[in-house]
Amino acid sequence: MNQGARSFLAEMIGTFGLIFFGAGAILQQQATQSVGTTGIAVAHGLAILIGVYAFGHISGGHFNPAISFGMWMTRRIGMGKMLVYWVAQLVGASLAAGILGYLYQGGPVDVHLGAPTIDPTIGSMTAVLVEAILTFFLVISVFGTAVDPRAPSGFAGLAIGLTITVDVLMGGGLTGAAMNPARAFGPALAAHYWQDQWVYWIGPLAGSGVAAILYDRFLLARA
Q1: Is the pLDDT of residue 81 over 90?
Q2: C-alpha gyration radius of the chain
Q3: CA 31, CA 217: separation in Å to the nearest integer?
Q4: Model-level pTM greater than 0.85?
Q5: Residue 1 has pLDDT above 90, yes or no
Q6: Buried (b) or exposed (e) across 192-222, using 16+ Cβ within 10 A?
Q7: Alpha-helical runs (H) found in the chain
Q8: DSSP letter at 218?
Q9: Contact yes or no for 178/204 (Cβ under 8 A)
Q10: Potential cystine with 92: which of 12, 52, 82, 113 (Cβ 3.0-4.6 Å)?
Q11: Is the C-alpha dihedral spanning 16, 141, 181, 45 positive or negative?
Q12: Which chain regions cross the lipid bilayer (predicted)?
């Protein structure tokens, strides 16, 4: 298997894990009331932590079209590679959501297989802002721990996973704290629930682009 195929498979499996465990925790909470907001946040964070340590050395451990977009914006990957990663991430998310739909047949329908939703008190434009800010800090964490050569080695997975956790703790009740178009797309596809789907593309891509350019241009040391 060539490197491109290995990267595709790594991104697909890693994104599958994020949706399977993250959205799965939401479904388990809805079904049993045993997980809670903190448990849901930890499930998302640990899924990413595991994925980064398992696959970061193979594909970079993006598992998120917004992170791949930030890498493209700073010319760390080309357009073709970014699009291949997007396909892998969307396929992985969709497969995981499809399996969750099978496991929870007739179960907690009102959470739409864990698809993120917007609190009606804030509206869609505010939701875009929330998703952009949450993703901004996620991508800052990625660049600060996985991209910057000055970062101490071995901590990227932990730092990125913890960033996901605090993001979900803060924003989960407002927007679902997707920070990731694939995280929104997979459950939406399986549940046929497309409400405000655009928010989960515009917000994360905007936040990622700003964070990536800011870190690359102003915080990254130049030789």
Answers
A1: yes
A2: 16
A3: 46
A4: yes
A5: no
A6: ebeebeebbbbbbbbbbbbbbeebbeeeeee
A7: 3-32, 36-59, 65-73, 79-103, 123-142, 156-175, 181-191, 199-214
A8: I
A9: yes
A10: 12
A11: positive
A12: 7-27, 39-63, 83-104, 124-143, 155-178, 198-215
Cα dihedral 19, 43, 66, 8 in deg (nearest 10): -50
- The residue ranges of every structural domain in the chain are 3-219
- Identify the residue whose tokens are 């969307």: 90
Residue 64 reports pLDDT greater than 90: yes
Report residue 167 as tokens: 């993001």
Q: What is the DSSP string of 108-149?
A: -GGGGGG-----TTTHHHHHHHHHHHHHHHHHHHHIIIII-T
Q: Rounded distance, CA 65 to CA 85, Å?
A: 7
In order of 167, 185, 208, the CA distances from 132 in angstroms are 11, 17, 7
Indicate the CATH number for domain 3-219. 1.20.1080.10
Interhelix angle 123-142/65-73, rounded to 10 degrees, is: 60
Q: How far apart are CA 203 and CA 127, in angstroms?
A: 8
The answer to whether 173 and 119 have CB atoms below 8 angstroms apart is yes
* Mean pLDDT value of segment 108-131: 92
Nearest to 67 by CA among 146, 128, 13: 146
| DSSP letter (8 states) at residue 107 | S
Long-range contacts of 151-160 (CB under 8 A, 24+ apart): 156/52, 156/56, 156/61, 157/48, 157/49, 157/50, 157/51, 157/52, 157/53, 157/56, 157/61, 158/49, 160/48, 160/49, 160/52, 160/61
Task: Answer whether residue 167 shows pLDDT above 90.
Answer: yes
Burial of residue 116 (number of CB atoms within 10 Å: 0-12, 13-18, 19+): buried
Both tokens of 28, joined, read 């388990």
Residue 170 CA from chain centroid, whole number: 15
